[in-house]
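Much of the work behind modern protein science is quiet bookkeeping, done one molecule at a time. The fold becomes a row of whole numbers, each drawn from a learned catalogue of backbone shapes. The protein below has been through that process, and both of its lines are reproduced in full.
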Amino acid sequence: MGFSISVDNFKNMSVKIKTVTKQLPKYSRATDEIIPFLDSWLVGQDERFIRKVKKIFEGALVDKRYSIMDPIEVFTKTSFEERNDIYVREVIDLGEKVLEKALEKANWNPQDLDYIITVSCTGIMIPSLDAYLINKLKLRQDIVRLPVTEMGCAAGISGIIYAKNFLQANPGKRAAVIAVESPTATFQLDDFSMSNIVSAAIFGDGAACVLLSSHEDDDGPEIVAEEMYHFYDNIHMMGFKLTNSGLQMVLDIEVPETIASHFPDIIHPFLEKNNLKMEDIDHLIFHPGGKKIVQTVESLFSDLGKNIKDTKEVLRLYGNMSSATVLYVLERIMDDSPKKGSRGLMLSFGPGFSAQRVLLQF
């Protein structure tokens, strides 16, 4: 009898998102301020090519990009070691600030955390960010830590999924997911491929922190369900190639079309398992991968009277910050105080190729 009660309690264990915060790097430039840097970078290139590159930047639907480096540093030839050193230094700083901000917003102490997940794919550091945060904030010595390093843009939601599973198995616990990314640290000065140019046009740097809880005293939207979806035979679609000059972007031109072709299989079965249809979803919390992906997703949902205005606005204000970006969308929606009982669907895509989904009830 006692065992059956504990099993029932486990099944009914509610995991909630307590709060979400963001932290932006110190440098930023509007798109029109970036164009002069393109002129100096593209000296000697064909005039038509230069016009095409500028058109890509101007048409990327990104008004402003933040960076851990001054633009002069971004467009200066440096070694992989020098760039990665900047990445490590700035990621630790952003991670500390965003976690402190989230704890303060939730009115939690650093010692309240039982689980810490750090997410980043745009640099290399061992020990990982979580180790530095344990020391800097004096987190508990028995805290469980998990660094997520190779899941790209999907990893923000991946971290939420891992935290949810840990918290569901451990009632009365609290977790932090910290995503810190610097795509500008991966910019390749000698690479004039469309992958490098498009990624430079759509990406920016940023950090976000999500605090989650299975503590009965904590409130926030409940994670009702979560699932990953893996595309077969699309490993070539997206990722990084480690070269002597750093992490070189791999970005296939067919990514939006591939996502569109899989969309029914990504969305509908997941919702059906929870006795829902797309019409029952009130808030679309989608990762703004870039202009074409945003337009693809928007066209798929416009017939249902749904909008992804928060996704578009995050892309416009900050660009694609890899794993952190969808968390910026979540923050906007949570700060808007959604109606009690309304539902949200989180979705992001990343290397592998994969899609991660989380169903929320506010």
